[in-house]
Amino acid sequence: MNTVTRGFTGRRRDDPKLPPGQYLEYGFPVLQAGPTPPVNTATWSFTITTETGESTRWDWKQFTALPAEAITTDIHCVTQWSKLGTHWRGVSLDTLLDGIETDAAYVMARSYGGYTTNAPLPDLRDGKAWIAYEYDGKPLRPEHGGPARLLVPHLYFWKSAKWVTGLDLMLRDKRGFWEQLGYHDYGDPWREQRYQGD
Amino acid sequence: MARAAVPGRLTWRVATVKQTKDETATARTLTLDVPGWPGHAPGQHVAVKLTAADGYTAQRDYSIGNASEPDRLEITVQRLSDGEVSPYLAEIAEPGDQFDLRGPIGGWFTWDPADPRPLLLFAGGSGIVPLMAMIRTHAQFGAQVPVRLIYSARTPADIIYQEELSERQRSSPLTITYLYTRSGWAARGIAPARDSKSYTTRLNAKILAETAFPPSANPATFVCGPSGFVEAASSLLVAAGHAPGAIKTERFGPGG
Predict the structure, then answer these.
(1) What is the pLDDT along chain B (256 residues), one digit of tens a residue?
(2) B53: which chain A residues are within 8 Å (Cβ-Cβ)?
(3) Do B134 and B65 share a structural domain?
(4) N or C, which end of chain B is more exposed by having fewer CB within 10 Å?
(5) Which of B105, B247, B248 to mutate to test the interface with A (most CBs of A within 10 A)?
(6) Residue A121: what are its φ and ψ, rounded to 5°?
(7) b/e for B53-67, b at 16 or more Cβ within 10 A?
């Protein structure tokens, strides 16, 4: 039961595309825990490691030669802003996971700078997730996770790990950086799963 | 009292405005009675939910400004001209008004008063709020580590907590440097704090070298403010040789 606040009327930009508790943002705010790590595409790599320790690795040249998709999607940050109809370009996780044998049910995404975040593997399949390297037709800027970030737009945006460098496929779930600090293991914006216990 | 992580389930609590204080022309501190508030670590924030008479709600996060104490919270809200929640909190709310909040949230951008490292703080605008909670907690615990605050604001009239900062600089191992990013304020009759070093410029490598602890002092470093300020300050720190892992950042996006 909410407490009615005297004198508050609100702006009422209710939009069916906005999940509960979110407001519409036109800029592109930045959320991160520390300095932006410098990541050079000359030394960049992306590695998928299975639960048996088998690794598949791409360097920047190999990665950007993979078939890429244009993605138009809404994004929702746990800090309550949402941005509608954002434009990205990247490689589908379906393409990257194709041919990789695994029984894993979960994934830990790892980033340059040490950031990690966890998600169920099915949430990265079937056209729901990408490794994105362009935003609005331009190379992804470092403060937004460039040169490449995970894009899992149906979950709160901290799951879309910036400066991503690999995925570890896991049989059992483990908590990543923000999840260990109390943020939700799954993070569905439509169920407002911001923090543990939501 | 200090909680490093969000403890279990975060429940919504009713906050009652006890007192308001104008800090600048656009920022106001609200002292809130929050029965059952479990205490917090300096640097943490709360989610505030306002509900209109017809049930419409709007929710935003605000940093906590006070050192932890039972059943009481302070937030300082900068009014954003196109904001939805901040104009209510910074202009309309009066003692006795009520709204829902939950927290404390955030276990990363927090300072532990037992940390033996010097404390290095960079504030941009209302980014001072969680850093003020650290300065107040330093005093609450009688911590002896030296503290340096580099506080960037548009003009001296935009400095939040000016009097208290001057007082704390006199009575504790705190050294403050103010950076004013707009010129021309002197002509408008605005007086700067006379007890602190100040520059009318944005942060740069030279000022950083003159005012911050050097990398060899291994400070615990916190940077809070608008995204551009945080990006600039953290990049300058890394370029000066500070370890990226010792720098914690928190950014205020637009909106609110």
Answers:
(1) 344 444 567 899 999 999 999 999 999 999 999 999 999 999 999 999 999 999 999 999 999 999 999 999 999 999 988 889 999 999 999 999 999 999 999 889 999 999 999 999 999 999 999 999 999 999 999 999 999 999 999 999 999 999 999 999 999 999 999 999 998 888 888 888 888 899 999 999 999 999 999 999 999 999 999 989 999 999 999 999 999 999 999 987 543 3
(2) 4
(3) no
(4) N
(5) B105
(6) -60, -40
(7) eeeebbbbbbbbbbb
What the block records as the tokens of A29 is 């705010």
Q: Output the pTM of the full model.
A: 0.93
What is the domain partition of chain A in residue ranges? Answer: 45-191
Q: Write the residue in A3, A79, A178 that is nearest to B98 by C-beta.
A: A3
Amino acid at B211: T
Match 């800027």 to its residue by tokens.
Answer: A141
Query: At residue A38, what is the residue type?
Result: P
Which of these CATH numbers, 3.10.180.10, 3.40.228.10, 3.90.420.10, 3.40.50.2300, describes A45-191? 3.90.420.10
Q: Which residue reads 């044998």 in tokens? A: A101
Same domain for B93 and B51: yes
Residue for token pair 């992306």: A46
- Which of A34, A79, A182 faces B253 most closely, judged by CB atoms? A79
DSSP B98: E
Q: Distance between alpha carbon B120 and the CA centroid of its chain, in Å? A: 13
Whether the predicted interface score ipTM is above 0.95: no
Q: Please identify which residue in the block is written with the tokens 């906590």.
A: B64
Q: What are phi and psi of B73, to 5 degrees?
A: -140, 150
